[in-house]
Every structure is written in structure tokens, then in C-alpha cells.
Amino acid sequence: MPETLATVTAYRRRDHAGVAQEVLDGAGIEAIVEETDVAKVRVDNLDALRAGDVLNRVDVPLDEIEEADEAKRNEVCPACNSQNVEASRKWQLFGVIAMAVMGIAIAVSRTDAAFFILAATAMYVLTANRWRCVDCAARWD
Ligand SMILES: [Zn+2]
């Protein structure tokens, strides 16, 4: 494979990139799939225009990513600009609370009340912020 490769397109799914690769192969264009955070389909620079043409003519519903060469937008903390962030584990938390509430409810024979508490907790969990900064503990959506 030559050194000068161009990214023709990219997909979120490896199998979609594989389909594009086969289509190009069928058109006599050697392509490789390079997996980074996405599956990029790359060809020799000289074949890039033709490859784009070939893929445009193919009627396969593939989940193509626009602007393939742009870096994936990483979630950044709005408070301290740290990239050390994590998605909060909302449902895990809900599971823990639900177990505790049900345990108490069964112990005191008040499962009707427990139901309301769980519903309220579920509402809270669903509206809670999605991201959490590991460095400064800021939360945002
Ligand atoms: Zn932060």
C-alpha cells in the first residue's frame, strides 16, 4: 500500500466500513479500513476522487460520519476545562437506592409507600446531570 493515503469516508461501525471497502474493491480500488475512534476507509490519494464517486453511487444505507477527519469532540469540563470527565452512573445509583428502599419497605410492610419513593427517585435520576468532572466534581448535562 502506498504511503499517501486519503480518508474517503468514515463510519461508526466497522462492518459498515467493511462494506464500503468491498464496494471499492469491486471497483478496482484498493482500500484499507483504519480503526481509530471511528472506522476510516482510506485509499491512495490518487484514487480518492474516484473512490468518493464510487461510494456516492452505491445505494447502501451506511451510517456515514461527516467530516471524518475532524477530531471527535471530547466532553470537557465547563468549570475547569479538564478532559478527565465521566458519565455519571445514574442507573447504577438508582439500583442501589431501589434495593435499599424495597428492603426497608418489605421490612416495615409498606410497599405502597416504597412505590412512590421509587417513582420520585426515578424522576430525579432521569433529570440528574449526565456528566461529572473527576478533577473538580462539577456536573453538567
Ligand atoms: Zn472540572
What order do the helices and strands follow? EHEEHEHHEE
Number of alpha- plus pi-helical segments: 4
Mean pLDDT: 81
Instruction: Give the neighbour order of strands across the main sheet.
Output: 1-3-2
- Please state the overall shape, judged from the principal axes of the Cα atoms: elongated
State the distance separating the first and last CA atoms: 44 Å
Q: How many beta strands in the DSSP annotation?
A: 6
The helix fraction, in percent, is 40-55%
Structure description:
The chain has 141 residues and is an alpha+beta fold. It folds into two domains: 5-56, Alpha-Beta Plaits (2-Layer Sandwich), CATH 3.30.70.1530; 85-140. Helices cover 41% and strands 18% of the residues. The protein has helices at 14-26, 48-57, 90-107, 111-127; strands at 5-11, 31-35, 39-44, 85-87, 131-133, 139-140. The protein has a three-stranded antiparallel beta sheet, covered by helices on one side. A three-stranded antiparallel beta sheet has the order 4-5-6, with no helix packed on it. Helix 3 (90-107) runs antiparallel to helix 4 (111-127). Zinc ion (ZN) binds at residues 77, 79-80, 82, 133, 135-136, 138. The site of zinc ion (ZN) has 8 residues, from loops.
Layout of helices and strands:
Layout: E1 5-11, H1 14-26, E2 31-35, E3 39-44, H2 48-57, E4 85-87, H3 90-107, H4 111-127, E5 131-133, E6 139-140
Helix pairs in contact: 3-4
Bound molecules: zinc ion.
Zinc ion is lined by residues 77, 79-80, 82, 133, 135-136, 138.
